[in-house]
Amino acid sequence: MRILLTALLCLWLTTPALAGVETRTVQAEATGIDRENAIFNALGDAVRQVHGARVEASRELRSSMERLARHGSDGGASSTTLRTGNESRTRVQSQGLISGYRVLGVTPAAGGGQRARLEVRVPVYRVPGSGAQSNRRRLAVYPVAIDTPRLRLAGESLGAGDASRRLTQAIVQAFVASRRFSVLERDMRQAIEAEQGFVASGRAGLAQQAMLGRELGADYLVVARLTELDMDLREVESSLTGERSHQGEGVATLEARVVVPATGQVMWSHTLSTDLASLGIDAPGSRGFSQRVFDALGSELAFQALNVIYPLRVVESQGERLVLNQGGVIVKPGQRWAVYDIGKAYSDPYHGESLGPRESWSAEVEITRVADRVAYARVVKGEVDGDGQVLRRLDATGQATREAERAALRGTRERVCLPMDPC
Q1: Contact 126, 258 (CB under 8 A)
Q2: Mean pLDDT highest for which of 106-110, 192-196, 234-238, 418-422?
Q3: End-to-end Cα separation, the chain, in angstroms
Q4: Considering the entire predicted model, what is its pTM?
Q5: How many of the other CB atoms lie within 10 Å of CB of 4?
Q6: To bridge 377 with a disulfide, which of 103, 161, 303, 365 should be the other Cys (CB 3.0-4.6 Å)?
């Protein structure tokens, strides 16, 4: 078997430490037909120790036979094979930078040639950010497919490309804000490829080339398809009071799946069919009606996925005040959530898969304030002791709960709800 070793090495002779680049020192050993080849092969071994290698192996059977025909005196014939052959080939590729090396020794190798021992310094690019981020699963959101010829918001038609870009951005924004996954870029790759091309061209410092070839693959893919989008806000006037308000019309339907790219296994699937009231949109607002719809759809879809995998948890409780481990756009002020104590964990008796723990109701809370990383809530019913409890959403907008409370107060002998009352 003949092994071809190709190591693509760039010698980096300057050693200033750059942000995101650290130097790892390794010892490597290899043989070669002479001193120079032995050192070169040892440098390749050092790079492989740090960055790994790509191995391409193939085996080709080539048979070339020459036959000698013989004829006997009895008229019979026979043939003899003179030569056959086969060939196998393996190619190993490794690529990386070397900031320097020191020769520890070069000695004769058994069987001929030279054996070199080196101490090699290999720069390694580290992704910016906290170490906790590296513990997250990696997720990529692919552009939303549009599967409907009619896209209308507030009476205006939208192009499929525009709707796909804006909805994809809303989904990415919601997952990033959740801080549950490391979200990878997949729909705006032109800028990434342009920057990598600039670094590889040599116009950037050679040290910065340590970042090349370090892109990450996703553990999970989010794929979605918009099959219906026709929504509008219509202004209505009360026949009794003359008060003007807005009433939502139409629906949006968004199909989504979370898939493992390595196997194609579907880990989660959901069809979100919703209206403006369920999204909490009851007035045009200052950000623009269409943008609010896209943001709300992206936030709701991300919530539905995260609620199964990473439900909200209580991280601190002080009397009636709670701190939750989720902020951003997933949680909104005024929402009502149920708090459950965690109990015994269950598993499926057929295949042993976890069914999750027992959840026992302990309280109902209302979100009072939302920050980037956490949310704050107050207990409106029940009691919360300690932390670690899981939360399940009861009312996405809080509107239904507030209406029920006002209805319970209005018209009773104990209290009549007047315009100046908080009810």
Answers
A1: no
A2: 106-110
A3: 85
A4: 0.72
A5: 10
A6: 365
**According to the model, what pLDDT value does residue 361 have?**
96
- In Å, how far from its chain's centre is CA 302? 12
> From the CB of residue 140, how many other CB atoms can be counted at a distance below 10 Å?
22
pLDDT at 20 over 80: no
CB 144 within 8 A of CB 168: yes
Q: What are the contacts of 206-211 at 24+ separation with CB within 8 A?
A: 206/10, 206/12, 206/14, 206/97, 207/12, 207/14, 207/16, 207/18, 207/21, 207/97, 207/123, 208/18, 208/21, 209/10, 209/97, 210/21, 210/96, 210/97, 210/123, 210/124, 210/125, 211/20, 211/21, 211/125
Task: State the Cα–Cα distance between residues 184 and 141, nearest whole angstrom.
Answer: 7
CATH classification of 133-310, choosing from 3.40.50, 2.30.38, 1.10.4030, 3.40.630? 3.40.50
How many angstroms separate the CA atoms of 258 and 141, rounded?
Answer: 9
For residue 346, the model assigns a pLDDT of 93
Q: Does domain 312-423 correspond to CATH entry 2.40.10.410? A: yes
- Beta carbons of 38 and 115 less than 8 angstroms apart: yes
Give the residue among 251, 246, 244, 252 at the shortest CA–CA distance from 282. Answer: 246
Place of tokens 């909104």: 332
Residue 313 DSSP label:
B
Q: Residue for token digits 């997949």?
A: 186
How far is it, in rounded angstroms, from Cα 407 to Cα 397? 17
Rounded CA-CA distance 292/252 in Å is 13
pLDDT per position as a tens digit, 141-193? 999 999 999 999 988 899 999 999 999 999 999 999 999 999 999 988 888 88
